[in-house]
What does this fold into?
Amino acid sequence: MQTIYLDNNATSKVADEVMEKIQPYFCNLYGNPSSMHTFGGQIANSVKIARQQAAQLLHCEPDEIIFTAGGTESDNAAINGTIASLPHKRKIITTRVEHPAVLHVCRELENHGYNLVELPVDRTGQIDLNQLEDELDDDTAIVSIMYANNETGTIFPIDRIAKMVKEKGIIFHTDAVQAVGKIPLDLSKSNIDLLSLSGHKLHAPKGIGILYVKKGTRLAPFMLGGHQEANRRAGTENVPGIVGMGVACELAAKNLEEENNKVKILRDKLEAGILNSCPNSFVNGDINNRLPNTSNISFEYIEGESILLMMDRHGICASSGSACTSGSLEPSHVLRSMGVPFTAAHGSIRFSLSRYNTQTEIDFVIEKIPPIIKRLRELSPFVSKDF
Ligand code: PLP
It folds into this structure.
């Protein structure tokens, strides 16, 4: 059976170009970049090139890039590292719709006595900027607001937010794990101090990430040991991962606009095809400010998990809620925060596309979904027979 992979916000295929470049670093080019010999120096040079490739994508300096083990580590390091470097400040501001890699760190700090503000969102998933401005004060150590939401694709006005936060002299972090590679980002023109990204969301391997730290930003080291990553993140580098991240960033920089236009056309076709043939379904998120690859659709009165299982029989992969929280029967904290009714939040499916999807795949999905929804509605005790 073919696999139609529409779950790219959970993880993405490693690009062939990436795979080809990283393979030698397991078997032939296995030296330690910290070694004094020429062999080690060659590897250190590969790490240097990857740092430059990442910096080019983000429009920042190579020495503002710290390689980490993924988005979760970058988020933890940004928040905990800032808090540790500003011990007199006791307030943290974030939103209710962050990924757990941010939300759980903030809540843990709240358990340790910090004053945590989780900003609410409206029906489209956007925060109220006036409310944010009112919360900014001298006691605030960090504001952490995601660039784009992993479940709905809603894009926050991050440059405006960063400017507002910076004007008050407060550190601003953004979790850009879902944004990088999907929309253009220019850190040279932005007030962002700290930015997290993850390799496996942009066709690099799992277990590699980046924390961008703007020059001059105070951030306590988050892994102690050797001198790697400018003394901030000790540990022998994940060289294949770093090389792969570099190539993935280079590919994203080169092809971002063209590929994402193509992805958006497919996403819009999929969405229209489903909405036109499935009554009582609607799109969640900010329709006008959304990642080009993401469509979160609520099918009222049926279970997302049942839809996933029936799609799976046709080889169609998607998510209900986020991959990290699926498996729990609680509806998504993001959709609930947006005020999506319980019966619709439960029946939500996130489709997330990539450059590897095709028209033929989308046509297949548009053909298979309506009968699945119809069948599940027929079985649902909550549904009138008019559906
Ligand atoms: N932040 C967001 C918005 C994400 O979507 C994810 C992964 O789903 C993460 C952080 C965690 O990244 P990683 O899986 O690389 O730890």
